[in-house]
Amino acid sequence: MASIVLTNVDKIYAGGVKAVNGLNLEIKDGEFMVLVGPSGCGKSTALRMIAGLEDISGGEIAIGDKVVNHLPPKDRDIAMVFQNYALYPHMTVEENLAFGLKLRKMPKPEIQKRVNEAAKMLGLETYLKRKPAALSGGQRQRVAMGRAIVREPQAFLMDEPLSNLDAKLRVSMRASLNTLHERLGVTTVYVTHDQVEAMTLGDRVCVLRDGLLQQVDTPQNLFDKPVNLFVAGFMGSPSMNFVTAELVRDNGVSVRFADITLPIPDSAFADKPGLDQYVGKKVILGIRPSDFEDAASAGNHANGWATLPVKAEVTEELGSEINVLFLIDAPPVEHKDTVAAADTGDDEEAALPLVGDKSLWTARVNARSHARPGQRIDLVLDTHNLHFFDPTSGLAIGHEANR
Ligand SMILES: Nc1ncnc2c1ncn2[C@@H]1O[C@H](COP(=O)(O)OP(=O)(O)O)[C@@H](O)[C@H]1O
Ligand SMILES: [Mg+2]
């Protein structure tokens, strides 16, 4: 096992595309690091440079204590798993697993031992004599993982390995990957465009945009303390609600937008140094859907929360929770960062209906709520959790990285 350290790494493709721009990233020994970002942001390029499949235009990559800039892939002691895993169709599962080790002239008993261990770990023992055509998609992906595991490499590099699987299988494979990582503890760099996958798998997550690192942190910190509008809008599902608002002083300080005024608690100012300098000015306000509750079904924990009367336009019942979609009488925020974050390249996400001068917001409330389309309800929210961004730079106000 080994750490992987990228220092000022650049990639400029022939033709001039700067796919990766001054990337600094330290992946700890044994860490599960996820690279996430919209399609084309440079995730695969970064991974392929670590693997040695792509030249580095500038900077340095070290695996363990060794600078590997000029080391061919086979000498880097890493194993890759791709979205399009190519298994050998004429070989059995067992032969597929053993093939790479045979090429390396490993003694037969050692090969057998490693293949058996990997098969056991991946639940493939009963399929060892089958050929890939007789396996399900998920089983095939397990064989592809198995081929990486038997190598016992210093690091796993995975590029969207679950993208070809259906939603249910992806969830169960995510769980298997988590278990596998706990068991083996091998340094892993995992690329995905799916922020849910990133949040559930990563010890830490590195968010990229246009080849530039935005933020590296634990999933919880990315969610609670996004460094800018882009990270705020990209991480979290449903996405954060945004509106251009004004900080005004009446009794205390409030944030005002459309016909709504929300008081800002003193604790928020304590948490966000510099926020006080925006009083009397415009900010972009962000509210996570999960920070709302339906007043009618909220428990005592919502005492003292601010109230937002709304009309439910659409409700999506998810079993344990309900998404309530409602309109805010203010135009959608058209900052370049919120627009970029909304473009996840994911076809599954339906386009928002055109609502003209109004913004469509989402509240995710407890399923005890009786909210139905067309109904007026009172939403409540914990104003301590409001997010504030500078309307010009898009940077989170009061975030330590921006001070
Ligand atoms: N072989 C290549 N030649 C030229 N441009 C490339 C090549 N591969 C990728 N790119 C460009 O580099 C950028 C980053 O691509 P990529 O790393 O594949 O992004 P991601 O994996 O995040 O979707 C994109 O603009 C893409 O078009
Ligand atoms: Mg890619």
Offer a quick outline of the entry.
By secondary structure, the chain is of the alpha+beta class. Helices cover 24% and strands 31% of the residues.
Strand and helix layout:
Blueprint: E1 4-12, E2 18-27, E3 32-36, H1 43-51, E4 58-63, E5 66-67, E6 78-82, H2 93-103, H3 108-122, H4 137-149, E7 155-159, H5 167-184, E8 187-192, H6 195-201, E9 204-209, E10 212-217, H7 219-224, H8 229-234, E11 241-249, E12 253-257, E13 260-264, H9 266-271, E14 282-287, E15 292-294, E16 306-317, E17 321-328, H10 336-342, E18 359-366, E19 376-381, E20 387-389
Parallel strand pairs: 3-8, 3-9, 6-7, 7-8
Antiparallel strand pairs: 1-2, 1-4, 4-5, 9-10, 11-12, 11-14, 12-13, 14-20, 15-19, 16-17, 16-19, 17-18
Bound molecules: adenosine-5'-diphosphate (ADP) and magnesium ion.
Residues 13, 15, 17, 19, 37, 39-45 line the site of adenosine-5'-diphosphate (ADP).
Would you mind describing this structure in some detail?
The chain has 2 domains: about 220 residues, P-loop containing nucleotide triphosphate hydrolases (Rossmann fold, 3-Layer(aba) Sandwich); about 170 residues, OB fold (Dihydrolipoamide Acetyltransferase, E2P), CATH 2.40.50. It has 10 helices and 20 strands. It is an alpha+beta fold and about 400 residues long. The chain has a 6-stranded mixed β-sheet, with helices on both faces. A 5-stranded antiparallel β-sheet has the order 13-12-11-14-20. Helix 3 crosses helix 4. About 25% of the residues lie in helices and about 30% in strands. It starts with a strand and ends in a 14-residue tail after the last strand. The protein is globular and about 80 Å long. The protein binds adenosine-5'-diphosphate and magnesium ion (MG). The site of magnesium ion has 2 residues, from helix 1.
